[in-house]
Structures are given as structure tokens and as C-alpha cells.
Amino acid sequence: MNWLKKPASDTQLTHGDRLWLYFVATIIMLLLVIPTFIVIPMSFSESQYLEFPPEHWSARWYNVYFESSKWMRATVTSVQVGVLTMLVATPMGVMAAYALFVSGHRAARAIFAFLITPMIVPVILIAIGAFYAYGRVGLNNTITGLVLAHAVLATPLVMIVITSALRNYDLNQERVARSLGATRLKAFFVITLPQIKFSIVTSALLAFLTSFDEVIIAIFVSGGVNATLTKHMFSSLRDFIDPTIAAISTIMILVSTTLLLATQFIGSRQK
Amino acid sequence: MSASTASKTEGINEKLLRIQGIREQRLLLSLATPAVLAIVAIIVIPVGWLFYLSFTGSNGHLSLENYQRMIEYKSYARVFVTTFQVSILTTLICILIGYPLAYFLAMLPQRLAGFFMLAVLLPFWTSLLVRTYAWLVLLQKNGILNDFAMSVGLWDTPVKLVHNLTGTLIGMAHIMLPFLVLPLYGSMRKIQRDLMHAAANLGASPVQSFWKIYFPLSMSGMVAGSLIVFVLCLGFYVTPAVLGGGRVVMVATQITAILENQYNWGAASALGVVLLIATLVILYAATKLMKLDAALFGKH
Amino acid sequence: MSSHPDSESSGASTALPIHIQGLTKKYGQMFALDSVDLEVKSGEFLTLLGPSGSGKTTLLMAIAGFNRPDAGSIRFGETEVILTPPHQRNVGMVFQSYALFPHMSVAENIAFPLKLRGIAAAETAQRVEAALTTVQLDGLGDRDIEQLSGGQRQRVALARAFVFRPRILLMDEPLSALDKKLREQMQIELKHLHEQLGVTTVYVTHDQREALTMSDRIVVINHGKLTQIDTPHNIYNHPANAFVADFIGESTMLPLEHDGSGKLFFQDHLVETDFKTDAARNWSLVIRPERLFMADKKAVDSEKAIVFSGVVRDFVFQGETAFALMSINDKYDLAFRFGTDSSSSQNILQAGDQVSLGLNRSDVIIIPQGDDS
Fold first, then answer.
1. Rounded CA gap, B284 and C4, in Å?
2. How sure is the predictor about B157, in pLDDT bands with cuts at 50, 70 and 90?
């Protein structure tokens, strides 16, 4: 246990003096992670009531999920909306972030602040506003309406990721490319884009997840055959604890964990 | 710096250069147009519409009745009190839990911190609905937490942990924690190690140098993080609705209830407007006070 | 320092002159460039020298096309390029940060401008090889940028800037990221490269020694105005005003009085006998510390030299030279620098010593007081 006596900090503390901190931090991290992941074993329970650990293991609730046309339909909708949101928000955010970063125009800062507003306005307000406005133009319960609203939520996230990537990038590279004979457009695509592509992928994944996980706007704006997974989950949650939700949650955890690990992997390869 | 002779008369190519400059700026800024238009269509116009509705009475004329109702009815006062109560408590819990965690992560070597950071990022990336559901399952009367507590003898009969304020706060804190830890961790990483060396060299004890040097320097991240948490809490819907079980009515819950039960757009809009204004005022005041611009949105 | 080989003849056909007229750029109320006129001769190595914020980089960026001026004309040869986008200007450019493309190999970086010009693969490969040889990086074409040292990166950036045979080469403090030794070595190499390529070169630096070492001509720039344009020799020996005298080299400035009959005095020293001036101006005497010499007051011919006497206030040994401050009447400090050797008696100067310093009349520099000439 020599390690305990080694200095742990830039002051005079040893690891031994710090044990309490390691202990507290470990508990906090466990509390952060376990509650979510405990759903996974529970979803494999045979019982109506969620048990931990399950007395009998079974894939019963997965069968219920995969055989229900309601859940399948909702899943397809959510994936569809997620992918479309990603396809709309990513180019929109990248273009805006790049333009505002490069321009140096007086108005650029103000426009940037304006484009960040979806992160500031409470989502409930966006939801009822969209619900009301869509009612007038017939966009409620449509994929288009939902994608538009989700894209607006996701664009600022894309912009923030891309702006920070551009801040770590030497824009002189683009200048050099132009002096060497490349048009501005070509310089962007051949020089800048390959170097920020990992950030673009990360921001695209973020955009997908933003839409895929979004609840409130979906509750108001989606419905009928175009109701999302989260909308159905939410209404199930409010009434009773349906074990099917545990199965769906497990799948969703799997999706987001995979995406997160993918971005981490990308991030480490980037350096 | 110096007065120019060129500025008085039209310089060579001045007009052509100006035109070219304006054209290029326009072309560049036009790249931001789709995003601007989308926000105008999805946020500015609808919210503006709600603003208008909030000032429209039941007879269809301009009226302040929707706002008067908020002052007159006790039920509204209760909603506002609950909203602030939950938001403040959640923020405080997040600070209490988040500070040691961020401190722990910040003193780890970069690589190790990256690994342990997953503990913060995993929940951050996991659907909020899934996390809320997980807590619902954990906290219910015959759930794991009650089972565990009774088996180790913390209490004898199942305690009601969910469908009340306790459950709401547990769920909210879990969901909000990353929003505090991430900026806090960022500001802690920026604190130069030399400062701690210098403090130690000047004779400060570890505890002294923490409170006199480290803590004040980590404040910017903590204030930014707390602010994000607080403002997000104000408008939160899903978690209080599910874990509060109808007993914790916050502004967002109330807005939905009004629309579901009475379909009263004026009343719902007025609440929404108050929520938005409260959010903006708090953010504005904090930005002015703390110069948090940069910490919150990134300096541009 | 003053002599430089005549490089124009070897590469005149590949170089273009630059004519700049009335170039103005304002940031808010501040002039970054204040109606600048400048002629860069075909094939010359011209350095823009000035402190940070003087406008030198703004001027370079305007020539490259990255900075749109508010007014003015820039011609490459006979062609007006003020409205031409950067990619059509055909100028080579080297940045302070090198701005190499990290996702391409060394050879790919250098081949980049050739590919854009649609040059065939075989010729591209051959020209890349030749460029690598020129910058002494033979065989490193396959390396990743990250594997290169700072000096090697500098050479790749150079090769990439001249491989497409631009007729103008622009460099923005390209050596400032290198350590002192490598920087001095690269200065010589860059000078040779310029002689070899014969391309018109505009070079930006804030390092006066670098400017003196490399340039055919130096443009001293301050507050967006060109203060003096001349050869290194003339800039050093005949600074136009106090700013140039102070910015380039070390100097002591002493106020002069004129008696109205063409005689200029510093205290009771007659500095100049036949000086033509309008009486409205005040003048200063500029003394370069290394031009002073230890003098025996009686032995010096006052026709040829002026002798200042005073007390040593400070003495520092700095290796190849030693530096001293001599106080004249406790009012003026005269800086004095001299070479050292192991036996030199001058090494043992001490504070408080009485000394006499001589200045040859041929080394007298007289400038008007104030920064603007």
C-alpha cells in the first residue's frame, strides 16, 4: 500500500489523505450509472412486476415489444424522424457555424446568439407554440412538422460542436489553400472539412439523439400513426409500470451507449 | 491613428471594393439563412403568437385577464412556489454532489479523467425518459431501494419515495448533474497547477490553499453550471410529471394541464410567457453580473 | 551587410514587380494602412519591418488578397489585382504557423498547388522531388507532417509556396517560431533560395536583425504609414527619423541646438558646421553605441571626431561584446558597445570611471525630432 503514501496533489496531500474523496466520488459515479443500467437485467424478468434480480429470466417483454405493431410503428417513426433531423440539422448547423466563425462581420455575434435561442427558450413553450402554429397549417401529426421542430432544437448543438472544432483549427490552412489556387469552396471541402469531419460526425450523432430522445414536442406535435416511441412510452409511464418499457429502455440505452462510445473512440483517434 | 488625406476624397477603386465586400459578406452570411429561417418559423412566430394569445381574453378582445388570474388564484401561486422550490433544491443538490465529483475528475490525469468522465456522459447521453423510468422502478413501494433499505435495517416498512417531492428531486438531480459537472470540470482543469505549488510554497496548508485559491477560481464554472441547471429546471416537464405523480405541479405541468382540461390557450400562453420572461431575466442578470457569456455560450 | 549579389539578372523572367497605390484600410477609426504607395521591384527581396499593429501584416494580406482594403490599387506587373480573389492571384504564401495540411503527407502538401493546376502526375512527381531537393528534404516526401521538426515544416511550407512557380512570394514572419540558432541559419538559406528562384519576395517581420540580414530593401512601417524605404545599409546608417533610428539597432539620441548660421551643437560640442535647415525644427544627434571608441582627448583630431567625456554609470559583459552607459553631466546617458578579448583592458571598466568616447564625424547621424519625418 505504498501508493497511499505517495503525494496525490500539488499541495502536500497523499493519496491516503484523499481516500475520502475517492470514496465519495465512487459512490456518486455509481449512483449516476447504476440506476439507468439496472433496468437492463430487470427487462429480462419473466414476472409482471419488475424484479431485481429476476427470479426467472426470459425474453418475454422483448417479444411483446417486437410483436406489437403499435411499438414497431412508433420505433420506425422515431428512427425516421431522428435520421431526417440529423440530415437537416447537421448541414444547417455546420453552414451557420462556419459562416459566423469566418465572417468577422459585426452582426455575426448577434446572429450566433439568435441561433442559440432554442437552447434558452423552455421546450414546453416551443412545444405548445409549434402545436398551435402547426394546427393552423396542418403540420400536426406529420413527420415534416416533427423533423422541423427537432432540427431547430438540434441546430445549436451542432453549431457549438463545430464552432469549438473551428476554434482549434488553423484557418490559415484554408488561406494557404486559396493562395495555392483553390477556390474558397474547394478549400473548405478539401482542406477544412477532412479535418473537422470527426466533429461533424459527433454533432450529427448528437442531432440524431436529440430527436430520438425528445419527449415534450413529440407529445404535442406527433400523434396517430406518426406518434413517436417516446410519446407512447410517456403515456405508458404515467398510467402504470409496463415491463415492456424496460425492454424498450434497454434497447435505447444500448443505442445511446454505442453512439457515445463511438464519439469517444472518434475523439481519441482524432488526437 | 492619424488623420488621412485619403478619407476626404474618394480613394482608388473605393466603390468597387465596397461593393465586392458587401457581396462577399452577404454570400457568407447567407449560409446561416436556413438556420435563421427555421428558428423564425418554429420559435419566433409561434411564440409571438402565444404572446398575442396571452393578451386575448375569453371574449376575443385585448385583455389582461390571463395575467390577472395568475395573481388572484392561489393555485397559480402554488405552482410558481413549487417551480422555484424544485429548481432551487435541485440546483443545491447538484452543487453538493457535483462539486466533489468534478474536483475528483479534475485532479485525475487526463486519460483517467476521460475514462471516469464516462460515468457523467453515459447518463447524459441516455434518454431522459429512460432515466426517469429507471428511477420510477427503483423508487416504487416494492422497488429495489425500499427492499435494500429494509434488508439492511434502515427502515421497517416501505417508505413512499416516488410520486412526491422526494422522488422528483432525486430524478431531477440525476438528470441535471451532468449540466453542472461539465462546465465545473472545465473551469477546474483551467486552474494552473503552479498556483497550488505557489500557495504551498508560501506556507498555505492544503485546506487553506483549497479555500483561498482553488475554490474561488472554480466559481466561474460553478456559477455557469448552476445557472444552466436552474434555468433548465424552471421549464422541466417529463420528470416532475412522472416522478411527481400529480403532486408536484410545476409551470410546465400546469401549462399542459390547462390545455388538456380546459383547452384555454390564453391561460396556457400567459404561463408560458411568464416562464420565458423569468428565464430570460435570470440569464440576462447573471450574464451582466458575472460576464458569463463566454462560459455559457463559448466566446465568439 | 551592405553588399548583396545582384539577383535580378538570373530570374528576371520569372518575377513580377508590384505597384501599390493609395492603399487604405480602416478598422473603425484607426488606419491599419493609411494611403500606402509602394513599388516592389521585379525580383527583389523586400522586407516590411515594423512593431506589432503597425500594419505590415495587413499590407501583406492585402497583396495576397485575404484582406480587402477600403481603397487603393495593387498591380502585379501591368495587371490590376485589387478585385482578384486570392486563388487567381498566383502568389506563393508562407504563414507564421506554416499552415501545412496535417491530413496530407509532405509530398501531397507540395503537390497540392500542382494538382489544382491540372499538371500531369509524372511532372507533378518530378517537380515535387525537385522542390524537396531545393529545400534539402530529399526522400522525406512520404513523411507525415507530424513527424517533422519545426525547421523541416518550415521548409515544406516554403517548397509548397514556390513549387508552382509563382512570380511573387509572400512570407508572414515565417521564422518566428524557430529557435534562435535555426532561425539564423534559415535566414541565410532563405536568402540563397531567393537568389536561386529570383522571385519577387515580400517578407514581413518585426525582427530588425532579420530584416537587415536578408533584405535588398527594407520598408519601415509604423501606424499604417511607410516611414522609410531603403537598403539595409542606408536604413541603418541614415535613419530618416527617431522612430527608425530607435527601432533599428541600438542608439542614443542627443538633442541639438542650432545657432542660426548652420552650426549644430550638442552642449559645447560642435557637431555640424554647415547644416541647411529651416529654423522651425529641432534636431537630434543619433549615436550608434558600437561606433564610439575609447579616446584619448588630446590625441584625437577634432576635425575628424567628436569626443564626449563622462562617468561610467553601468557596465555589463555580454560575451562577444561589452556594453556600458556613460553619463554626461548626470543628464544624458550615452550607450557604448565594444568588442571584447581575453586581455582587453576595456573589459575592466567600472562604474565611476572617468572615460572619453570618440565619434568619427563620418558616423554622425542627424535626424529631426519627433516620429514623423
1. 63
2. confident
Across the interface, whether the CB atoms of C68 and B17 are under 8 A apart is answered yes
What is the Cα B138 distance to its own chain's centre?
Answer: 26
pLDDT digits (tens, 9 = 90+) for C278-288: 666 788 899 99
DSSP reduced 3-state for C28: coil
User: How many A-C residue pairs are in contact by the CB < 8 A criterion?
Assistant: 64
B298: cell is 463559448
Contacts of C31 in chain B (CB under 8 A): 1-2, 4
Single-letter code of the amino acid located at A262 = A
Domain limits, chain C = 8-244, 252-368
CB C226 within 8 A of CB C219: yes
**Cell numbers 445549436 correspond to what residue?**
A156
Contact B5 C72 (CB under 8 A): no
Give the minimum alpha-carbon distance from B19 to chain C in angstroms, rounded to a whole number.
10
Long-range CB pairs of A27-35, under 8 A, 24+ apart, other chains included:
A28/B97, A28/B100, A28/B101, A29/B101, A29/B116, A29/B119, A29/B120, A31/B174, A32/B119, A32/B120, A32/B122, A32/B123, A32/B174, A32/B177, A33/B119, A33/B122, A33/B123, A35/B131, A35/B134, A35/B135, A35/B138, A35/B174
| A52-102 tens-digit pLDDT | 777 888 888 899 999 999 999 999 999 999 999 999 999 999 999 999 999
Residue B233 banded pLDDT, cuts 50, 70, 90: very high
Q: Does B6 sit within 8 Å of C82, measured CB to CB? A: no
Q: What are phi and psi of C200, to 5 degrees?
A: -65, 125
C-alpha cell, A223 = 400523434
C-alpha cell belonging to residue C68: 480587402
Chain A residues within 8 A of C64 when measuring between CB atoms: 175, 179
User: What one-letter code names the amino acid at C52?
Assistant: S
Provide, rounded to the nearest whole percent, the portion of chain B with pLDDT above 90: 42
Alpha carbon distance B267, B274 (integer Å): 11
List the CATH code of the domain at C8-244: 3.40.50.300
Specify the CATH architecture of the domain B76-297: Orthogonal Bundle (1.10)
Beta strands in C100-216 (DSSP E): 168-172, 200-205
- Domains present along chain A, CATH in parentheses: 2-60 (no CATH), 69-239 (1.10.3720.10)
Taking a contact as any Cβ pair under 8 Å apart, which residues of chain A between 213 and 252 contact chain C?
none
Contact, B199 vs B212, CB < 8 A? yes
CB of C151 within 8 Å of a chain B CB? The answer is: no
In this complex, do B13 and C30 lie within 8 Å of one another by their Cβ atoms? no
Do the Cβ atoms of A189 and C122 come closer than 8 Å?
Answer: no
Asked if residue C1 has pLDDT above 60, the reply is no
- A176, closest residue in chain C (CA to CA): C93
List the one residue out of B234, B12, A4, B1 whose CA is nearest residue C26.
B1
Interchain contact A195–C (C-beta under 8 A): yes
- Scanning C96-115 for CB atoms below 8 A from A yields 97, 99-103, 112-113
The verdict on a CB contact (< 8 Å) between C223 and B1 is yes
* pLDDT tens for each residue of A163-206: 999 999 999 999 999 999 999 999 999 999 999 998 999 999 99
Q: What's the rounded Cα separation, in Å, for the pair A35 and B150? A: 18
Q: Domain C252-368 is of which CATH architecture? A: Beta Barrel (2.40)
* Neighbours, chain A (3 or more CB pairs < 8 A): B, C
**Pick from C155, C165, C149: nearest CA to C132:** C155
* C residues 195..254 contacting A (CB < 8 A): none
Q: Spell out the residues 6+ positions from residue C336 whose beta carbon is closer than 8 angstroms to its own.
A: C289, C292, C323, C324, C325, C326, C357
Q: From the candidates B9, B10, B14, B17, which should be mutated to test the interface with C, based on the most C CB atoms within 10 A?
A: B17
